[in-house]
Design a protein that fits this description.
alpha+beta; 6-stranded antiparallel β-sheet; 4-stranded mixed β-sheet; elongated
């Protein structure tokens, strides 16, 4: 039976210091990577079912769900595969750090470092002319697209960014995190004056791989680029965990998904005046005149139309 490694108190303190410092550096990199200086489109659309759309239209409140609980696991898989391929491309000249990182990207449960922050997001698209958009996000043409002007965020804890579809740009973000991990190993060696135990290098690799998967919130395969997707994200930081910008922290709620899983979310409160347009799906059962009658006074005069993209539920 293999022996279990038990760190000394000094080693335990060193490990905690490494995790804290490295998480701070990685977190700053992820935040800077997904932020954008590009102006947002004048209008982006949040797509949902007819019943939920009525609640949003009356309140201006969107739910930003915790990123790891979102339906589309393919985003995480895409990011993981891209990161693993990038790290493995450095072979055969890679170090123990790169080998450990590649292994952990493929099997993150081996060590299980927890990213000491959470991202809560809600999605928008800037292109309603594609049938695939209505099929995948507009409930097979029965849903509603609510057009928002997002020039004003709900509060300073939210930021808006576009999904990155360009692989070269995605790889640059991945390389930035890997470089941070590699520099952390070098700093550890310099500080100790000798080669550290492999467990410490594996710890650094584990923290880096956990943050690598956080990049999945902002990248997709190029084949999805027609969606022109944007997201607003709330970055939640548990008190005292990571010293990043002091954003206001939101109250977290829990709802249950279709499969019964619990999903954490925060409420993104937008002013009703930020709603600028409503587009009903081709097969949506809502009546335009009836819908206008129940809208708040501030938005009763906004354009309401029905999509001409002929999508019907399968």
């Amino acid at each position: 039976m293999p022996s279990v490694y038990i760190p000394t108190p000094e080693e335990d303190n060193l490990a905690k210091a490494i995790v804290g410092l490295l998480s701070r550096k990685c977190g700053q990199h992820v935040l800077e990577a997904v932020k954008t200086t590009h102006p947002s489109p004048p209008r982006v659309f949040h797509m949902t079912d007819a019943e939920t759309s009525l609640k949003i239209l009356r309140s201006g409140t969107l739910w930003a769900s915790e990123a790891s609980t979102l339906n589309d696991a393919s985003e995480v898989r895409y990011c993981r595969d891209l990161a693993e391929r990038r790290v493995r491309s450095k072979a055969p000249n890679w170090t123990f750090f790169e080998r450990a990182l590649a292994e952990l990207i493929r099997a993150p449960e081996k060590y299980g470092a927890e990213v000491p922050s959470r991202f809560y997001l809600t999605s928008f698209c800037a292109n309603l002319r594609r049938a695939s958009t209505w099929l995948n996000y507009g409930r097979g043409g029965t849903g509603v697209a609510i057009g928002f002007d997002l020039s004003h965020r709900p509060n300073e804890s939210f930021f808006l960014f576009p999904i990155e579809y360009d692989e070269a740009a995605q790889l640059a973000r991945i390389d930035g995190l890997v470089d941070i991990g590699r520099a952390q190993v070098d700093e550890l060696i310099a500080g100790l004056g000798h080669k550290p135990k492999p467990v410490f290098i594996s710890l650094i690799a584990d923290v880096v791989q956990a943050w690598l998967l956080s990049l999945a919130i902002a990248m997709k395969d190029e084949s999805f680029s027609d969606e022109c997707e944007w997201r607003i994200v709330h970055h939640h930081l548990p008190a005292g965990k990571v010293d990043l910008p002091d954003y206001p922290q939101m109250t977290r709620h829990v709802r249950f998904g279709g499969a019964g899983q619990s999903i954490q979310y925060v409420e993104a409160q937008l002013p009703i005046s930020a709603i600028k347009e409503i587009v009903l799906g081709y097969s949506c059962g809502l009546n335009i005149d009836h819908l206008r009658d129940v809208l708040p006074a501030e938005i009763q005069r906004i354009p309401i139309s029905r999509s001409i993209v002929p999508v019907r539920p399968t």
